[in-house]
Design goal:
globular; 6 helices; mainly alpha; 0% strand; single chain
């Protein structure tokens, strides 16, 4: 009986914590502070299909923040060349507040999560991150924006 009561109280405590309001601003890593210019660059990248192998898929393609609740409202998401993923796209709404990303929780931060879909062969299908960087370096607007935001790093 004592164990059952303890477990029940622990469950209530976790539920109460889960139902607390979100803070007004997400926590940002010390090594990657949020700035208006960085947010604008991230938004531009989010909507840009040129980051996919064939130029047809953007992050927005599966994470529709305009009408579909931050996902694509499909049973399985569609990537480059019409390839079907194994799962539906999770919402990106309030993702800055999440402590684990992807359905299986394998990414602990947005910075880590953002790297995955670019090189996933079903999603955006770029061969590797070097290819993504090479493509971005061919787009003059991005070169100047990245330099302004990250100081040429």
């Amino acid at each position: 009986m004592r164990l059952a009561t303890t477990l029940l109280l622990a469950a209530f405590a976790q539920a109460a914590l889960a139902l607390t309001p979100l803070p007004s601003q997400p926590a940002t890593p010390d090594h990657n502070p949020m700035t208006p210019a960085k947010v604008a660059l991230g938004k531009q990248l989010f909507f840009d299909p040129r980051l996919s192998l064939d130029g047809t898929i953007s992050c927005f393609s599966c994470h529709n923040v305009a009408t579909a609740g931050g996902d694509d409202d499909r049973a399985t998401s569609v990537g480059v060349a019409g390839k079907l993923g194994n799962r539906s796209a999770p919402t990106v709404l309030n993702s800055a507040f999440m402590s684990a990303l992807f359905w299986d929780g394998r990414a602990a931060s947005l910075e880590e999560q953002a790297k995955g879909p670019l090189i996933n062969p079903v999603e955006m299908a770029m061969p590797n991150h070097a290819a993504v960087i090479a493509r971005l370096k061919k787009i003059p607007g991005y070169v100047s924006q990245f330099n302004a935001v990250f100081g040429g790093k």
